[in-house]
Structures are given as structure tokens and as C-alpha cells.
Amino acid sequence: MTKVYSFPRGGISLEDPAVPAKGPSVAAYLPGLSVVSLIQHSGARAYPVVSIGDVVREGMLIARGQGRGSANIHAAVPGRVIRMVSWKGPGSRTNDALVIRMEGSFEKLGKREEIFPWESLTCFELQRIISEYGIVEMEGSGYPVSDTLSSLRNSPEPYTLVVRCVFDDPWLAADRLLCRERVKAVAEGAFIMGRAGRVSRIIFALSHGERDLGGALLAETGGWDIPSSLVLTGSRYPQRNRRELELVLRRYAKKESFEPGSLLVLGPATLAAVHDAVKLKKPILDRYVAVGGSAVKTPQVMKVRIGTRIGEIFAECGGFISKPKRIASGSPLQGRPVADLDEPIVKTSYAVFAMLESRMGKFQDRPQNCISCGECRAVCPVGLDPEELYKKALLRGPPAGAGVSREGDADGQGAGCHGCGCCDVVCPSRLSLSAHILGDSGNQAGARRA
Ligand code: SF4
Ligand code: SF4
Fold first, then answer.
1. What number does the ligand 1 atom closest to the CA of 369 have?
2. Burial class, 179, CB count within 10 angstroms (exposed 0-12 / middle 13-18 / buried 19+)
3. Domains of the chain by range and CATH?
């Protein structure tokens, strides 16, 4: 029997009946008006290369990234740029977007895909293509992949590429489905990244419940000149977190007697996008999004064009049963509140959800006093005492506000907390423990309350 590697302590098992049921994915309607944000990830914005009134083609470059942390943006539908809009995003950051009214014909949708040979391309050429097509990490922060490749090239030590198919949170339903529906693209994307980054090894890390998927991924690796293997991990949250994943992979490497060097961790949506950029010369035009929550009539995983407004996505799922109390993008544990249903889907939107107040779990009331039950200590994967850190944080004063750093307190009191939110979930007094520990009263804590 294959060994399953899990992180040693803490963590929680997450279930949510309001998550979309398993597959197949549903193609969302093409947006009549698409709102293409000039910030599609957590890095720097891109700058328009088109003007109001211009006609754009499907897949055409409409905004160019400038410098490190910034990525190119392309039109997801053909049409005419009719205006520029702005709104306040997380951390009071101003978001600008080009609004495109769909018109004209599609050049890629419904057409036979042309495959471009890539095997003889150098790693520099692969990186240039990945940069040109604006590929960013589509899970998590959204860092531009070409910047990651630059860093790898300057590093003297070997790298292992980790394909993270660890589904410890039911709200990763879109990634899970993409893996199954696009297994070949995910595997080939990993191989392309392996070549582009000159990695010494590729590891497919999969939740143990996805063994069959692991077999399907490994079946695609025949003939590769980069050694590849499969590791089964636990599925307790936060197993996919960088720290917990690294713990189990280093244990695996020790058992198998190899030195993994530094780990480059990428998810399946990113690798499928790398495949599409290099083999199909296609930018990120759409993405898989899990749409659900107790307020949504028909939760489902949808393939959604970038720039589609979130309100339209909910409407396609039958709308709301009743007025939702919370609407957010991402997972209830890692997401951020959505202030306006006209906000668009961006490259990093893996889930959107709307929750009824009556179904927000057992902790609906206002926060109470700590009862020193110890639940938070029992689940902390880092071995911290969240109760103590929370009380120290209260003595220091209120959190600094939305959008501040989540790397720990300036005085080091919260150092080591990586904001997984396990303590928040189990606290019967409904205290915002991680937000106080990290000095961040902002978006993620707000979404977590959903
Ligand atoms: S889980 Fe909440 S109530 Fe229990 S000890 Fe921790 S902070 Fe206090
Ligand atoms: S949020 Fe921080 S303190 Fe709370 S369980 Fe996670 S690592 Fe521990």
C-alpha cells in the first residue's frame, strides 16, 4: 500500500455541503459586457495599450505589464472598448478596468486548436512566451510565472517542481475538476515548466483520495527527460499550505534518498495555462470557478471568461434563494469579501460564494469572551498558543487595518503564524484570532466569518 504523508500536528477536516458537487464543468455564457481588470493578481498593475473606442480581437493584448510583478492582460472576448471604470478593492487599492462590449467574431472559441511544436525551444524562449501571454499563478497570490523563472535561473541550487493537487479545502472544487478534465494539459504544462526552469525533478503531490488522478498524471510522463514521481498527502487542512507541504515532501525525499533542493510549487490551473500559452499560443481567456454557498440555488463549477461580472455568474446558477449575508471570492478560509456584484472574475478567482445568515454555522452571534477551552491550541499546525497571542495582541491595541502585511507582528509575537485560520474555525467564542495575531483586521478575516 502506498504511504500517505501528512503534516505532524494540528489542522482540521473541512466539509461544506454548499460547495458545487463533483463535475462536469459548465461553460458560462459569454459576457455581453466584460470588465477586464488591470490588476489580475496581487502584483503590480498593467497599463492599457488600447483606447476607448478601439476594436479588440479575442486574445489580443490590451494591457502590458511593466516590470517585475506585473503581467500582460488580453481581451477575453472580441468587441469594442467602451469605457474605463474604477473601484476600491482589498486594502483600499484602486482597481481600474477596461469595459469591452462584445461584438464581432471569435478567433479561438469553437475553432480547431493548432498545436505549436515547443520541444526545441530554449528556456529563454519558453520564458518569453509565458511572459508574453501573461501567465500568473492562478491559485493564491498570482505571482507572474515568468518572474519565477527569472529567479530560478539566478539560483545556483537545484529545484524540484511540485505539482500541487492537494485538495484540503472543499472550495478547491474548480481545481479538482480542472485536473480531471484537463489531465494531459496539466501534466504537459508541468513538463514545459520543468524545461523552462531547468528543474531537476517533478513531483506530483496529490491528496490520497485522488490516487486514480495521480495514476493518470504519471501515465503522461512516459518519455520525459526529467525524473517524475507521485506523492500521496493527507487531506487535512492546511496540507496544501507551503509550510505543511514542504514538511511532508522533505520527509518523502529523505525516505527516497534524494536531495530536492528548493521547491517550486505550482497548481494545476497555472500549469494548464502554461500548456495553453506554449502549445496553443493562447493567453488566459477563461478559468474554472466554483460557484456556490448556501444562498445560491444551483452551485456548480463553471468555465468563465475573464472579465465576466460576478453577479452574472450567480444569475446563471439560478440566482439567490434569499438575500445573502456574505458574498466573497475564494474560500471561506482564504478569501476576500466582494463589495459589488459588478466586480469581475480575474485570473486568480478560483471560487465565489454567497452565504445565508441562517446557514453560517453555529457561530452566528457576536464574539464572546475567551473561555480557555484550548481548542485553538489543539488545531494550530505550527504549535502556537493562539489564545495567548490573541490576548497579547489585545493589549497592544486594535489591528492595523485591511491590507497590511500578514507575516506576523512587528514585535515578533505572532511570528510563525501563517494565517491558516484553523484557530478561527474552531473557536467557540468566535474570536478573530488570526487577524489579531497577524495584525490584520482586513479582508481575509472578513471572508473567514462567512
Ligand atoms: S478556542 Fe477561543 S475560546 Fe477556546 S481557548 Fe482558544 S481563543 Fe479561547
Ligand atoms: S492562524 Fe496562526 S495561530 Fe491560528 S492556527 Fe493557523 S498558524 Fe496557528
1. 3
2. buried
3. 4-20+113-280 (3.40.50.11540), 375-448 (no CATH)
